Amino acid sequence: MTRPLDGNGGVRVRIANENLWKQFHKHTTEMIVTKSGRKLFPKVEFQLEGLQPDANYALVLHIERVDDTRYKFTNGEWVAAGRADPRTPARPIHHQDGISQSGKAWMRGVVCFDRVKLTNSSQDVQLYSMHKYRPVLHVYRINDTVPYSPSSMYQQMQSQLVPVTFVSDPIMDFIAVTAYQNQNVIKLKIQHNPFAKGFREGAERKRSLSDSPSSSPSPSSKRLPRGITNGEVSTFPRYESSALMRSTSGALAPMAPYALPTPNWSYPMWNPSAYMFAPMINPLNPYHFPIQPPYYAPQPCHGKSI
Which pTM does this prediction carry? Predict the structure, then answer.
């Protein structure tokens, strides 16, 4: 709500996206804090009216802690869980367009603090998880009788700032968390935040897996072995030339790899499992036996090599 100061009742400030904040407030808004910083959603947006067009104003945002209570999420709701950590001074946040602008410039459209990042480190807006916070906007009029530089820092302009009004509304309260707790808040983030792509894709993936009859992936297509052609299964792999079966210069024929051995159906007691891991005959060299069966005795060759 807007609270005018020092008789500046003509200045009015309202939350531009108030309806969206109300939807989240019904379920207790949650905001993620990370070490690198995470932006707020819903965004902090205001609409200003009643400012003097030619006067210069400064807008300063603070993320203030609401109470001294630590919270926890249990049974679908947030409840008090003890005393909070010691408070830290609220760091002033200036608008990205500049510390000071004319009243006409501030009233031109929606003033959005969309570059604010929440973090649990001291490098940015530092918050403690499981604590409740509220964005508060302070409006100051810059005293024209005191020389000032628009690019000067906020600390150097303290003597030039005259408080006009500030906005502190409970519907903007949120609890800082490292991971979302309430499923209703997650649904609202997915529904309204265009950058919640990760949550949206994750929900669609879970839904598709639950709708499918089996959650196991379909087997990938594999290339058929060389010995399988036109629906026919050959006992041995096909070779382009019978010359591979002949030895040259006294050397044996090239040996086929043992990765995918072709079964020899001539053995009456063939063991598929044993043959798979330890093939007994190399098709290209019948006299090579890694494991010789007890019932097989190779006969010596008395002829000449072909």
Answer: 0.62
